[in-house]
Amino acid sequence: MNFQTNWIALQTIINKEYVRMTRIWIQTLIPPVITMSLYFIIFGRLVGSRVGEMGGFDYIQFIVPGLVMMSVITNSYNNVVSSFYSAKFQKYIEELIISPVHPAIIVFGFTLGGVLRGLIIGTLVTIVSLLFTTLPIYNIMIIILVVLLTSFLFSLCGFTNALFAKSFDDISMVPTFILTPLTYMGGVFYSIDMLPPFWKTMSAANPILYMVNAFRYGFLGITDINIWIAFGIILVFCVVFFILNVILMIRGYGIRN
Length: 257
Prior knowledge:
Helix content is 77%, strand content 2%. The protein is mainly alpha-helical. A two-stranded antiparallel sheet has the order 1-2. Strand 1 and strand 2 form a beta hairpin.
């Protein structure tokens, strides 16, 4: 299969994901915006007015980057896991696996579909946040790189979940029992400098902490962790999950039985 054919296959998968996402935009784009608006009102305005400042910024300014990142993570993940599992459930995944498209292209295409949804949701939530507070930009390149890499990583995680899932219940277990707790404990609402030493050390093992802090650094210029370590961790996870997904696809795990 030559480069041009692979390129057409990649474009087709991405276009299919875009059409799917925009066709049901009331279910895919509106709910996270409404949810984050409630976070801005309750935690930003009502609770935040009593908290005061954190890290030298108003509390609502402190939590906005974390909430935007939380919506990017959740939606990138959910887009790929639901789309690819639906392909398995409705049996049209066979059309892909018997085609001459390389498994890496299939993984990459579905992943970029998740990245696209994560970026759209992140942009919408950021625009809505400006109705509640001003948001400085310390380093735009760090913001773009972190949001791209993070949405890419969690799209890959969603693909892995979809491969292993054997029912619709399985695709909701990882977000419920792993993703959501890690996100809430990832420094979205607080600085880990506030934690006792034991819990501060435990928080360092949470990869989402590095993504939230790196993203917050791009906006506010403050962070609890080393930015370069954060980029290193995200890149390593991206490479590991991409290779894992390609190997599973080549072996037909979860799609050929």
